[in-house]
Design brief:
- The chain contains 1 helix and 12 strands.
- It is mainly beta and 139 residues long.
- The protein has one domain: Sandwich (Jelly Rolls).
- Strands 1-9-6-11-4 form a 5-stranded antiparallel sheet, with no helix packed on it.
- β7 and β8 form a beta hairpin.
- The chain binds thymidine-5'-diphosphate (TYD).
- The site of thymidine-5'-diphosphate has 7 residues, from β4 and β5.
- Residues 4-132 form the Sugar 3,4-ketoisomerase QdtA cupin domain.
């Protein structure tokens, strides 16, 4: 559910010359990171996302600037505002997400549990609702 998408506080190595935030396989990331990508040069007022995944799990970090994720499990919606390079939002499988309110120059860093494959996407909202309704017998 959207309430099972926690915001992780990242370890920060801080000295007088700057900061390092760490995400590491099998330390604070509970899966093997297979892919890293980042969104940038997002135009003012642009909205992205509009899909869910069957298998993919992700950690999302506002590496620079800020933006909002709207998470939707088919029953509840939750808006998460990310504005810190020291926090990572854990998006579990089966969550519809939309992204908006990207600040100028923002960078949305994503660590993903699987390589890119279009077959893992649910891009139609009605298909998503059917999927979560049929899948609710598992949980
Ligand atoms: P998408 O995941 O829909 O973007 P967002 O959720 O940020 O709006 O991906 C947009 C396009 O980029 C889509 O055609 C698939 C492609 N893409 C890749 O080829 N590889 C990737 O790792 C990602 C994330 C997207």
């Amino acid at each position: 559910s959207v309430f099972d998408c926690p915001i992780l506080d990242l370890p920060v190595v801080h000295d007088q010359n700057g900061k390092i935030s760490v995400l590491e396989n099998n330390q604070n990331i509970p899966f093997d990171i297979k892919r890293v990508y980042y969104l940038y040069d997002v135009p003012y007022a642009a909205e992205r996302g509009g899909h869910a995944h069957y298998e993919l799990e992700q950690f999302v970090v506002a590496a620079c600037g800020s933006f909002s994720f709207i998470l939707d499990d088919g029953i509840n919606k939750r808006e998460v505002f990310l504005n810190s390079p020291q926090k990572a939002l854990h998006i579990k499988p089966g969550i519809w997400r939309e992204m908006k309110d990207f600040s100028g120059g923002s960078i949305c860093l994503v660590l993903a549990s699987h390589e890119y494959t279009e077959t893992d996407y649910i891009r139609n909202y009605e298909d998503f609702i059917k999927y979560v309704q049929n899948d609710s017998s598992d949980s």
